[in-house]
Design a protein that fits this description.
Helix content is 23%, strand content 38%. With 142 residues, it is an alpha+beta fold. The longest helix has 24 residues, at 12-35.
Length: 142
């Protein structure tokens, strides 16, 4: 036991550095989502019912703030943020294209739920801003 304590005292700076790195790895995504988002919130301009009212297509725009990030997906949830249920099948039906910084407009954001429920949802978009696919940046979209 005394050897362990002596080793910890000898390498306490190194142990502290590893603890700080671990905490930074855990909390960096939360800080990035809040203080350095990839896009501004989606501004909805039109809602169209499709599939006999079982789904909707949204039209609107957002400003992409970070041009070096590549789009990887959208996740739509029913309920309040932090306590929602994911709705599978949401997707941009617009033709994919390379998009840099600036205003981005979409004509066909498909959400598989009736129009009367759309105001009870929230969505996040996922982007790859760093090397590799392991870490995706999550941005609150609405």
């Amino acid at each position: 036991m005394t050897h362990t304590r002596a080793a910890l005292l000898q390498y306490r700076g190194l142990v502290g550095a590893f603890l700080l790195l671990g905490l930074a790895y855990l909390f960096a995504p939360l800080a990035e989502t809040r203080y350095w988002p990839v896009t501004t919130p989606f501004e909805r301009t039109e809602v169209r019912s499709v599939q006999d009212g079982a789904a909707v297509e949204l039209q609107g725009s957002a400003v992409k703030l970070r041009g070096g990030c590549e789009y990887r997906g959208i996740e739509v949830f029913l309920g309040a943020r932090g306590n929602g249920v994911r709705i599978p099948g949401a997707q941009f039906k617009d033709r994919p294209q390379e998009r840099g910084e600036g205003v981005q407009a979409w004509e066909r954001l498909f959400i598989p739920m009736p129009e009367f429920m759309i105001d009870q949802t929230f969505a996040d978009v996922l982007h790859a801003c760093y090397r590799g696919e392991r870490y995706l940046t999550r941005t609150h979209f609405w």
